[in-house]
Structures are given as C-alpha cells and as structure tokens.
Design brief:
By secondary structure, the chain is an all-alpha fold. 55% of the residues lie in helices and 0% in strands. The protein is built from 14 helices and no strands. Helix 2 runs antiparallel to helix 3, helix 3 packs antiparallel against helix 14 and helix 6 packs antiparallel against helix 10. The longest helix is centred in the middle third of the chain and has 24 residues.
C-alpha cells in the first residue's frame, strides 16, 4: 500500500466497516461505516436508523429489511416481505465465507433457517407473517391454532404459547411487541410449517388456503423444516455462537453442506439445493428461491455501502 488512504479503501472493499469506522477521522465516513456494520451484523432492529452520508437508495433498501419496533410502525419492512432480508442474508453469508468468518456465517445460516417457513407462506399470506395482519381463517371454527393445551395439536407447548401470543400481540404496547419478536416469532414460523406439512390431525386453521395451493405450500414448508435440521445448520452448535467452543473449518462447512444437499433432495423443492448457481454454498440461493416460490438472489446492499465508503475516501 502506498498511502494510508489506500489501506482504508482496501478495508472498505473488504467490508471491514468496524475497523474502518474506528480508524476514520471523517465523521461522515464513520457514520456510513456504522450503517454498514449494522447490516453486516444483521442488526435488523436498527436498519432504519438514520445515518448521515448514506445515499437514499441504500437507506431505502435497508429499511426493506428492517423489523418494525411497534405494532403500527410503517413502512412494515421485513413484515411486508422477507425477500429483501433473505437477499441480504445471502450477501452476508457470502461475505463472511470469503473473509473466513465462519462462526458469524453459520449464525446467519441459522437465522435464515428459523424464518424460512414464513418465506414459504408469503405468497399465500400476501405479507411475511405480520401479526397485525393474520388471516381470520387461523381462528376459524374448529381451529386449534393458538389453543394452549390441546392434545390433538401437533405443536409443542412453546409453539402453542407462541401462536396464542401472535394472535393478540398487535394490541400490546411496543415493549410486548419487541419481546414477542425476540423470543417467539421464529417459533410461530415453525408452527405454521407444521400445520401444512407434518400435522397428523389437521384442523381448520389452514382451510383459508385452497387445496392445491395448500399442497404446494406443504411441500415448500416441509423443505423449510428439513433445512433447519440439516448438518449445515447444526454446525451452529459447534461454534462459539452456539453451545460449544469449536469453530468449523471451511472444509467442515462444505462437507456439512454437501450432506445437507443430499438430505434435502426429497422433492422438487429440496432438489433445488443441488443446483450449481455459483454461490459459495452452491445451491443455497436456488433452495431459498424454490421455498419462496420467487427468485431470491444475493443482495448488493453491502457492496453499495462498500463502494460508497470507498468513494468518500477517494474524494476526501
């Protein structure tokens, strides 16, 4: 490197926003780096926080991934659609892979697995699992959705508690709303998948979906549930972000993904994981797209932030 500026630009292109923000003397550069670090860390609560010097298009795209912090906050961000958030997840996974930051990479994979059923439900719901907009059919006569203690329901006790809460959380104060998303919303995602994919005694909770679309949704939801049980996702429990102290090597990650692809190859949706789509974990964007029934590609949001920071440094 010829100059300090060259070093800072190189850090920008490596998405080293935390390091660059600490080194930068320019307040605008530091603010944009803080914005980029929030995105890279998947801090979805704060994606909508204003940052000086961030172009409007980048802020708009970040807000599309933002999780509303009150029941009536608008726009609805990731509750309107999870597709932008999954594009960002894929971009983060790729960046972490290339930086060999495998623990946070596996953490991002785990987050993707938790909410994947809601991505599958989005075409039927018309939103991404917004508790303020659940269909009335979930509570139709004969529905066991959200009924605590019903022994004919295949939901676990924690899922019954979460589904019961989701039907009323939109009327709670902001503190209750945020606590629900911290602890229970991912359980609701899994519970919805159980309803259409694995329930042994179906009730009327899903009768608002016509039989043929419900059958197709069941296949996509089944693949979403299967992804959560794959060797790749289970690597999280061998990493510092899980319950152990080991960090998986790149070879271990790729081996786990190959075994995961084989396990997912049970239907046309899961078989999408076998595609070679050029991603570091080949087939992962194709799998997410098949489960979503909509194209999901890695975003370029972090690249936009990186390029913008580099431009500020060069001009500065």
């Amino acid at each position: 490197m010829d100059t300090t500026r060259d070093l800072l630009v190189a850090l920008a292109h490596r998405y080293a926003f935390a390091d660059l923000g600490a080194l930068a003397s320019d307040e605008e550069v530091a603010a944009v780096c803080e914005f980029g670090q929030r995105l890279l860390s998947l801090d979805a609560e704060d994606f909508a926080v204003e940052a000086r010097g961030v172009p409007a298009d980048l802020k708009r795209r970040a807000r599309a991934c933002h999780m509303p912090q009150t029941p009536r906050e608008t726009p609805r961000g990731a509750l309107e659609s999870l597709r932008p958030a999954y594009g960002l997840l894929l971009e983060v996974i790729a960046i972490r892979w290339h930086r060999r930051e495998l623990s946070p990479m596996i953490a991002a994979v785990h987050i993707a697995s938790e909410y994947l059923p809601l991505l599958a439900f989005e075409p039927q719901l018309g939103h991404a699992g917004d508790p303020a907009r659940w269909p009335d059919g979930l509570s139709a006569d004969g529905s066991r959705f959200g009924v605590i203690g019903d022994r004919d329901c295949d939901h676990t006790k924690s899922e019954q508690s979460a589904t019961n809460r989701t039907l009323r959380v939109a009327s709670e104060p902001p503190e209750g709303w945020r606590a629900y998303f911290d602890r229970q919303h991912s359980q609701v995602a899994g519970a919805l998948a159980v309803c259409v994919a694995t329930c042994r005694k179906p009730c009327t909770a899903m009768d608002w979906i016509a039989p043929e679309p419900r059958r197709e949704l069941g296949t996509r939801a089944r693949s979403a549930l299967a992804f959560a049980e794959t060797p790749l996702v289970r690597l999280r429990h061998a990493a510092p972000v899980g319950h152990g102290f080991g960090v998986p090597s790149p070879e271990e990650v790729l081996d786990a993904w190959e075994r995961s692809r084989a396990a997912l190859d049970k239907n046309d949706v899961g078989a999408a994981a076998l595609k070679d789509d050029g991603f570091p974990l080949p087939g992962l964007p194709s799998l997410f797209s098949a489960i979503a029934d909509h194209p999901i590609a890695p975003a370029t949001l972090l690249k936009g932030v990186s390029d913008h920071v580099a431009g500020l440094l060069v001009r500065g």
